[in-house]
Amino acid sequence: MRFRNTLACLLATPLACIDYAWAVGDQADAKGFIDDAHLDMLNRNFYFRRDYEHDGVSGVGRNPYKSRDERSRYSEEWVQGLMINYASGYTRGTVGLGIDAYNYTAIKLDSGGGRAGIRLLPLHDDGEPDDSYSKTGGALKVRVSRTELKYGNLFPAVPVFWVNQVRLFPSSATGFMLASDDIEDLHLDAGHFTAKGSVDSSNNDDALALDYGLPISIRSIDYLGGVWKPTERLRVSLYGSNLKDTWHQYYANLTYRQPLTATQSLSLDANVYRTTDTGKQLASTIDNTTWSLAAAYKMQAHTLTLAYQRVDGNEPMDWPGFGTMGGGVALANAVQYATFTEANERSWQLRYDLDMAAFGVPGLTFMTRYVRGDHIGNAHSDNTYYTSRYRYPEGSDTRHWERDIEARYVVQSGTAKDLSFRLRQATHRASTGYRYADINEVRLIVDYPINIF
Questions:
Q1: Bridge partner list, 46
Q2: pLDDT tens per residue, the chain (453 residues)?
């Protein structure tokens, strides 16, 4: 079911999520509005702690409502979430009609005003986190052949408009979304959205914004694109978007997997974004090309990945944001904490994955990676917004690195089948002047999905 794929994507890395392209069923196989309905529930327990180094008590991810002396030197939130998703079937006939609906409820287990601010819970004006909150929405849907149109509160996940999926609940967007699989081996997407809902908000009608959180409101975004799979080994993606009066953004991706032996393979993944300002230039002047290239060698249970990423432009790579959090982006070095997308930045990554199924423990996996970025500078930028907030003078030698470690186990059988435990640790360090703080963080996520009917 598509909902289970969505849940998997919520816990996946950004590049893995692209494999979950919206698959459209055939209207000829419609079983009816009630007969083909599905109700799923995900119980999610999320613990998140972030420690700030060098006595840092302010910066990214902190409580904006508390004064400096009221903030702890760490952020900590522990929340229990219940995510209920309903998808009706389609009525029979040439044109099928249906509805989708969801209700997400969060209950605070532990946090406080001095420790809050990492977006598992919304904050009151006094800086105290809510004891509970909920997020509710729905959509109407129409299907003809293998083409589906939806309108309502949706979760787009295309490279040029991607909801945030790394907190307790995903962010959302309000508008139209079209997907089609009518052409063999070609998946097409189109969308028009006019509002958003943040990861820690009950609203679905807030103005669109940017990942950098610039003080602007954007009226709408439109996108068009698709994924072509001419063979099982090769996939090509092309997308374009228009963020009204802000920018045109284009994206291309090529992935290829080459088996070497029965137990070995080599995979290549190339991504490129091209962004140029348009209209009223709400985010000022932009002329940016950002790209990444990753190569992964797999041998039995082991996978070794090397990646290189480059920002060509005096403005940073930016993408649509969702209030308190940015959205997703399909770049190799956009990792757990930092995205390595500052102006003119270059970065490389070394990653190792281990699948313990080969050693008799199916469902248990490990990952570790190290990413290092340098060559950051925007001294020659004419953009008034980015440079006023983050200035990297010429010759400043700004650089940073991040190390991530992750362990995950998914129960394979029995009454607890699909119960998963995911432990994530990140360390980030940077030279003076970099916009993100030095941190150590731990996230523990326990998920238990249940298919009710």
A1: 79, 445
A2: 333 334 344 334 444 444 445 589 999 888 999 999 999 999 999 999 999 887 654 455 566 666 677 777 888 999 999 999 999 999 999 999 999 999 999 999 999 878 888 899 998 888 789 999 999 999 999 999 999 999 999 999 999 999 999 999 999 999 999 999 999 999 999 999 999 999 999 999 999 999 988 889 999 999 999 999 999 999 999 999 999 999 999 999 999 999 999 999 999 999 999 999 999 999 999 999 999 999 999 999 999 999 999 999 999 999 999 877 889 999 999 999 999 999 999 999 999 999 999 999 999 999 999 999 999 999 999 999 999 888 888 888 899 999 999 999 999 999 999 999 999 999 999 998 898 889 999 999 999 999 999
| Dihedral over alpha carbons 255, 260, 262, 268 (to 10 degrees) | -20
Gap between the Cα atoms of 323 and 284, Å rounded:
20
Closest CA to 255 of 265, 245, 243: 265
Burial status of residue 320 (CB atoms within 10 A of its CB: 0-12, 13-18, 19 or more): buried
Say if CB 140 and CB 99 are below 8 A apart.
yes
Exposed, middle or buried by CB within 10 Å (0-12, 13-18, 19+), for 322?
buried
Closest to 129 (Cα-Cα) out of 116, 145, 146: 116
CB 167 within 8 A of CB 325: yes
Which ranges of 219-264 does DSSP label H, i.e. alpha helix? Answer: none
Q: What is the CA radius of gyration of the chain?
A: 22
Helix (H, G, I), strand (E, B) or coil at 217: coil
Distance CA 151, CA 142 (A): 9
Count of all residues that appear for the chain in the document: 453
Distance, CA of 250 to CA of 416 (rounded, Å): 43
Tabulate helix, strand, coil % of the chain (nearest 5): 5, 50, 40
Query: Euclidean distance between the first and final Cα of the chain, in Å?
Result: 11
- By C-alpha distance, which of 301, 446, 427 is closest to 372? 427
Residue 82 to residue 44: CA distance in whole angstroms = 6
156 to each of 130, 246, 385, how far by Cα in Å? 27, 20, 27
Q: Which residues of 20-45 are buried (b: 16+ CB within 10 A; e: fewer)?
A: bbbebbebeebeebeebbbebebebb
Which tokens sit at 445?
A: 């996520």
CA angle 113, 117, 120 (to 5 degrees): 110
Show the DSSP H helices in 11-132 as ranges: 14-17
